[in-house]
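Title: Prediction job returns without error message
Component: structure pipeline
Severity: low
Priority: P3
Assignee: unassigned

Description:
Job completed but the reporter wants confirmation the result is attached to the right record. Sequence as submitted:
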Amino acid sequence: MNRRLAFGAMFALLFAFTAFVSAEEPKKEKGGEKGPRGGGIFGLVEKLDGLTADQKEKIAKIKTEAEAAFKAAREAKDREAGKKAFESAREGVLAVLTDDQKAQLKKLLEEHRPKGDRPPGDKPKGDRPPKADK
């Protein structure tokens, strides 16, 4: 009887400790409030200084068109169409911005990229130690 009581008490303590530890650790979510990259180029453009009402209107139209193109590409599972939609949106936004705003955006993009993140196709060079001879 004492063994059962001791085993039950240990099990209850283990369960309580596990629940306590999991409640203490904040859950890590992928990305921020607007997804993994914080809203992408559109989220960063909103942070630019000196956007005029006309620029904001044009960017909103580009965003709406891009979202529709992204959705269509996703539903069709067409990666190339998604890439083209992204590139078109990026070019459209850059066409609306002034040179100073483009420089600001470039700086924001560099700050926004997580450390260790490489552009596609950028392979590490010399990051790994040489293989040991056996």
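Comment from assignee: result matches the submitted record. Residues 40-112 form one domain.
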